[in-house]
Design goal:
The structure is a homodimer of 357-residue chains. By secondary structure, chain A is an alpha/beta fold. Chain A has 2 domains: 207 residues, 3-Layer(aba) Sandwich (Rossmann fold), CATH 3.40.50; 119 residues, Dihydroxyacetone kinase, domain 2 (Hypothetical Protein Tm841, Chain: A,domain 3, 2-Layer Sandwich). Chain A contains 8 helices and 16 strands. In chain A, the strands form 4 sheets. Chain A has a 6-stranded mixed sheet, sandwiched between helices. Chain A has a 6-stranded mixed sheet with strand order 9-8-7-14-12-13. The first copy, chain A, is globular and about 55 Å long. At the A-B interface, helix 1, helix 6, helix 7 and strand 16 of A face helix 1, helix 6, helix 7 and strand 16 of B.
């Protein structure tokens, strides 16, 4: 295992110490339970956004804490869900009186623990809502998830809803916007190589020298299919076409009802893309793929979108939701209406994304 | 060879096409000869900054074209110097009448070709100055270089001198500031793994499963020593101490004299760091190392600097001067006076660095 780490059991702690040392103007780190939060939290009167999940996907989520994005982020151990006490303590720390929105990626552990945290926070009188991100078109039901996994749209949702919260959106408005972003976003990823979880000490899976995995998740869980290595254009076409040609997707989600103090089930259907749509295109590195290769991918994404009458109006290209040192990429397309573009363009100042300030 | 590429001979061209497609608001790409330049070039009355070098180090240099940084960047083939006609045509395109500053990393091919380009531009009546970046403390004289190689300080120089040019510095003032930044900056890098140049199709060098290379250059050229794999703290201490304990470094550089129209040799001595210095600390990924590991490294850099009375006042952490998918990191420390901090903080809007706008 070749990594810049010290003792395996200190990996997450030392990364958090590094973040705290590097960005005291932006964020603070609370240890035991571990969470990262805005240096100026709580921001009175602003809805607070809290996300979290296993470590190993940096800069998501801790690197997105700061003005215009998250108020708090709860890191678990590598590829392991954080615990309800992390989420609950984080929510208490960042709540500025306008309530807390949990952005939850669809992995069973994250979902269950954020549900418990929402109930704990509600018991304390904190207004809470919770929106699930489930945007991965590759597989329905996988090793860690019932339904579609939560991947790249999470980054875009944190930016867009973060901008809206900064602009004074209420908790209900933030939740509605976040749900819309999730319904408008679709992603798919692929791996050229595996990654190694420090505690395991060996690659999560084996891929032959001439193989690749299409439709992989961010924990190295199996994808849709294993294929012979293909060109960048072929790979990009596989991912982009699967996203653009996706059918309507219906599932039941659970959201917290603040007034009733109970979980409510909702049936949601995501409509597919169509010609004439404007989109934000996000080409993401799984960690080990350099940005130079992402530009070759973006070039083909744009060509395919142009060919189908889907117009890319904004883009994001780089390593933002990663799987340690895994080589590969993921593509996310997000249908972008005026509200979404407005908050995408809003100022953001975090370690991982920064513009306008 | 596992990469997101199409035909090996199209790698650089397709990356440039991707950049042009992704960032039309920031930059344009000229093909044959290849160079990237600001979308609004030439900026009348502003000194134009031009850099360049082999591809494979992205986002450097093309990703640093835009407001507050470079006006033009000339990419060679992977790990291969660009040619004088690229640099000359780029200079002609971006010159806004206030002259062109070449920022040249110290590699023999780059140095010779930028010298030819300076003479060609001078022949056209363009005012030119050229500053060499040679900040790598690891080795003196290597496979590709006489003297110290140009590495991480290049990124910082492009940002800082870019800010000064935007603020109205003359060509002479920009050159003087750039020379100072180079003399104030020192870097050292290490590799956990090799990288593979597409045209070669196999790793540039072999490193055993329990080996690392200390003092490596950005082309995978041999470093100072090959050692058994060590911890992040041990590796960080090796690099940081070598930088902080460096002795005065004297060498002769050649700079273009605009008035005389000839090359002039200057002897330059860089003074070492001392307690009380303020510095910008730059922890860089060689490409394949994820940002999470860089934070563990930064934590130790800060501890060592604190212990020696060197105060980090700004930092940059991420993949900015890379070697394709190589795993490893480099550390750059730059002594920061008020002028340097002022222009570090100035607005920048490029694909690779963006803040304040």
């Amino acid at each position: 295992m070749k990594k810049l780490i010290n003792a395996v059991e200190d990996v997450v702690k030392e990364q958090l110490e590094g973040m705290a040392a590097a960005h005291p103007d932006l964020l603070k780190v609370h240890f035991e339970p571990n969470f990262v939060y805005r240096a100026d939290a709580p921001v009175q009167g602003k809805v607070a956004l809290v996300s979290g999940g296993g470590s190993g996907h940096e800069p998501m989520h801790g690197g997105f804490v700061g003005l215009g994005m998250l108020d708090g982020a709860c890191p678990g151990e590598v590829f392991t869900s954080p615990t309800p006490d992390q989420m609950y303590e984080c929510a208490r720390t960042v709540d500025g009186g306008a309530g807390v929105l949990f952005l939850v990626k669809n992995y069973t552990g994250d979902v269950l623990n954020f549900e418990t945290a929402a109930e704990l926070a509600h018991g304390d009188g904190i207004k809470v809502q919770s929106i699930l991100i489930d945007d991965d078109v590759a597989v329905k039901d996988s090793l860690y998830t019932a339904g579609r996994r939560g991947v790249g749209t999470t980054v875009l949702a944190e930016k867009i809803v973060g901008g809206a919260a900064e602009a004074g959106y209420t908790l209900q408005q933030c939740a509605d916007l976040c749900r819309k972003v999730n319904q408008y976003g679709r992603s798919m990823g692929m791996a050229l190589t595996s990654c190694t979880v420090p505690a395991a000490g060996r690659p999560t899976f084996e891929l032959g020298e001439n193989e690749m995995e299409i439709g992989i998740g961010i924990h190295g869980e199996p994808g849709q299919k294993r294929l012979p290595l293909a060109t960048a254009d072929e790979i990009t076409a596989m991912l982009t076409n699967e996203i653009l040609d996706d059918r309507p997707y219906t599932r039941t989600v659970r959201e917290w009802d603040n007034d009733k103090g109970e979980w409510v089930e909702k049936e949601l259907t995501d409509e597919p893309f169509q010609a004439g749509d404007r989109v934000i295109a996000f080409v993401n590195s799984m960690g080990g793929t350099p940005v130079s290769e992402l530009y070759a991918v973006y070039r083909k994404v744009k060509e395919i979108c142009d060919g189908k009458g889907v117009r890319i109006v904004r883009n994001l290209i780089g390593p933002y939701i990663t799987s340690l040192e895994m080589q590969g990429c993921s593509i996310t397309l997000l249908k972008a209406d005026d509200e979404i573009v407005r908050f995408w363009d809003a100022p953001v100042k975090t370690p991982g994304l920064r513009w306008g300030v």
